[in-house]
Amino acid sequence: FRRTPAGVLSQIAGGVVGFAKGVTIALALFWVVQVYIPAFQDEMAESTIGVWLGSLLHSLERLNLI
User: Fold this and answer.
1) Using H for helix, E for strand and C for coil, what is the string for 22-54?
2) pLDDT value, residue 2
3) What value does the CA radius of gyration of the chain take, rounded to a whole number of Å?
4) Cα 41 to Cα 35: distance, rounded to the nearest angstrom
5) What is the pTM of this model?
6) Other beta carbons within 10 Å of 40
7) Are the C-beta atoms of 34 and 11 separated by less than 8 Å?
8) Comparing C-alpha atoms, which of 46, 57, 47 is closest to residue 23?
9) Are 34 and 40 contacting, i.e. CB atoms less than 8 angstroms apart?
10) pLDDT digit string (tens) for 21-43?
11) Is the dihedral of CA 44, 35, 23, 60 positive or negative?
């Protein structure tokens, strides 16, 4: 494989898109658990990613994006 500027840029763009997709899926799962599955709310709220996703979800709600 050659390391051309276009190839490196393509890899970076792919990484950004993949990260955005992962965050979107995790946020959707967190929302489903938060709204519909109350038995797991405490565990989600105490997890490291749950705290981060909870603050992100709260920010999106304040901005009226969801």
Assistant:
1) HHHHHHHHHHHHHHHCHHHHHHHHHCHHHHHHH
2) 63
3) 16
4) 9
5) 0.70
6) 13
7) no
8) 57
9) no
10) 999 999 998 888 888 888 888 88
11) negative
